[in-house]
Please model this.
Amino acid sequence: MAQGLEEVALIFRRLLSSAGTVLLAVSVASLPALADVQAEPAVEAVAQQSGGEPALLKIANRQIILMRASVSGTEPPERVEASTDRIHQLVDKGGPLQVTTRAVPGAIAVLIDGRTALRVWPGDVDRDAGETDIEVAAAAAANLQRALDEIREGQDARTLLPAVGVSLLATILLAGLFWLMLRCYRWLSRRAHAMVQRRFPKQLPDWAGQVVGEAAVAGLFTVPLKLVALLLGVLFTYEWAAFVLGRFPYTRPWGEALLGNLLRTLGRFGAAVFDGHCIHGRPVEIANLLFGGSFRRRSLLRCLFEDLT
Model:
């Protein structure tokens, strides 16, 4: 009887020892997971710290993302520099250069061929503008994919040669337009001088010819022609520059910016005209609006060339 009790007690002690070993193993195995769970909020808190001035990441002249967050003491300009170097290294390695996104602890990673190119942290998102983490990361991935495609396009001579040919044709067309515009200006100028010579003696007294002169009066008639010719020349040159820059991958963002600026500026100029800024046609107001006046605190010509840096 005593021997049986001893065997039962021995079995019970072995069961307790096995249970303790299992519990210890489970506790040790769960420590890394608990550490990850505890560390993740800390990483997110660091990412959401406000840094200095936001920095814009640009690849191949294409805007990728505006970095705002300071991560682990790394300011946005330093993050931009590190991301630029990492992307260039991934491009130099070759491959399909496919851009994807993946959620990581505290951020969303933008990947090139499965390798991290940059991270979008919560602090990079402008909540006041209604942005979300997923939307900002998706936009950054789309912009980066387009930039990488243009890098590959710029390395292919088969795509550059047609662009050079089209640019030469556009240049020839621009020269033809300038030649035609010059011919029209000269013809209209001669007509204005002939009209002044016919009507000047009848409309003014004899002494006016000695004081003013026919040439001065004819010059007044040609001032509107010169202004129209100048504006048309600027418009043609602007359109030519936007078209030619858009043919080449590296300068394509500049061409797109020029075209977008032109459309926006024409819309603003038309709105300013109909709002009464120059509806009366006073030359001083028109000149200020075109070349340096308060066109929403910017002149028309400055609006045409914004967003190029």
User: Anything to note?
Assistant: The chain has two domains: 50-154, 157-304. Residues 62 and 253 are 6 Å apart (CA to CA). The chain has nine helices and five strands. The chain has a mean pLDDT of 76.
